[in-house]
Amino acid sequence: MAKPALPEAARTQGTPRKKTIAAGPKPVAKAPARKPRTPKPEPSVLDQLQTLIVTSLEDDKAEEIVVLDLTGKAMFCDRMVIATGLADRQITAMAQHIVEKLHQAGQKRVPIEGAGSDWVLLDAGDIVVHLFKREARAMYALEKMWGSDLDAAEAG
Fold first, then answer.
1. Do residues 63 and 83 make contact, with C-beta atoms less than 8 angstroms apart?
2. What 3-state DSSP class applies to 150?
3. Exposed / middle / buried, residue 101 (Cβ in 10 Å: 0-12, 13-18, 19+)
4. What is the largest CA-CA distance in the chain?
5. What phi-psi label fits residue 55: left (phi over 0), alpha (psi between -120 and 50 degrees) or beta?
6. Confidence of residue 36 (pLDDT cuts 50, 70, 90)
7. In degrees to the nearest 10, what's the CA dihedral of 81, 87, 90, 95?
8. Whole-model pTM?
9. 35, 58, 63, 69: which has the fewest C-beta neighbours closer than 10 Å?
C-alpha cells in the first residue's frame, strides 16, 4: 500500500521547529467575499396606490378584482382596477372607502362618476377604478376591451 505524499515539513529532517520553518507560513484562508447588500427596491408610488385600492376592495368584499396594466396602451392611465359589487349600497361604500384611503395617502382629489348606479368610476390619477354590478360588468366587458384581447389585436 502506497503512503500518501507528506507535506514538505514532514520530509525535512530535524526538530519540529526546523520543520515548521522549512514548511513556511501557513496559507491564510480568506473568507469568501461578501456581496454588498442591495436594498430591496422600494415599491413605486403607483404600486403602493394599487395595493391600497385592491386591499380596500378586498376588505369591502368586492368580487372578481382584476388589475390591468395599461402602460403604453392608454394615455389616460397606467393601470385599471375592475371589481364587482352585489348592490348599489356596497358599490357606493367601496368607492367612499377608496377615496378616504387615497386622501389619507396624500391623493388630494379623486373624482367619482356614477355614484349610486350600476357602474362607478374613480379617477385616482394613473389608476382608474371601475366598480360594477355583475350585469353591467358583463355588458361593458372592459377586461376584453383592455385585456389580453387588445394585445392580440395589436400584434395582428
1. yes
2. helix
3. middle
4. 100
5. alpha
6. low
7. 40
8. 0.66
9. 35
Residue 34 grid cell:
461578501
Burial of residue 6, with CB atoms counted within 10 A of its CB: 0-12 exposed, 13-18 middle, 19 or more buried:
exposed
| Residue whose entry in the numeric block shows the C-alpha cell 376588505 | 59
Cell numbers at 56, concatenated: 380596500
- The per-residue pLDDT for range 100-136, each reduced to its tens digit, is 999 998 888 888 888 767 889 999 888 899 999 999 8
Domains located in the chain, CATH noted: 45-155 (3.30.460.10)
Reported residue count of the chain is 156
Q: φ and ψ at 84, to 5 degrees? A: -115, 135
Q: Can you give the pLDDT at residue 143? A: 82
- Tell me, rounded to whole angstroms, the distance of Cα 17 from its chain centroid: 63
- Give dist(CA 127, CA 116) in Å, integer: 21
